[in-house]
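So, can you check this record?

>
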Amino acid sequence: MRRKVIACCVVLILCISVSVAFGQTQPQTQVSEEQLEQGEVIQQIIQLVMENSPLLQQQRNLISQIEKMPEPGEGFIESERIKKVKSGASIEEAPFLTLNQVENIRNQMISRIRNLGVERRTYEDLKEGILSNLMGKITRILTLKNRKQNLSELKYFLEERKVSLEKQVKAGVEEPSNLFDLEERIMNAVLNMQNTAVELEILKLEIAATFGGEKQPELLSLLDKI
């Protein structure tokens, strides 16, 4: 079930990535290969986060502690008698135990089972929340990467236009003000590229710090491959 959820999330992100990148000039076969590689990297990121998230690790430790707790009555009542009580045995089937002892042990068992179920559900809820948050941030990474690529292509186009416009201004065909306006657009494109690059790097560091646990460098390296 977990693998199916992860696979669906990866497919959804790749669909978003394709839709954002739609209209770029790369051949369709090349885009498909890039998307496939991205999908593999994203699956590795999800696996690393699920295994090393501090929140999930803390909850796993809590569940493990509950599971390792001694059975109610263990230590002063034989294990076979505890098993009889656990299976719903009556006082006659658990000799040498008083009715109060039987009920007390049963209540403790029920409480332990209930607590374990609550913590396991909490763990699953945490996983779903972390996965959803992570998917949103990965989608944001892809969006920023596409924005950076689009700005780079815009900058290239404007610079090519500038070369032609400079000749036209010298020839008196175009007004110098048009050249100034174009140069301003180029500077804005460069500034937006720089801001996008900074935002992208900050986002990667945030993801690594939030989800990576002791594997932050490895997570950061995977994020650079998206």
Q: What stands out?
A: The chain has one domain: 2-223. The first helix runs from residue 2 to 21. The chain has a mean pLDDT of 83. Residues 2-223 form one domain.
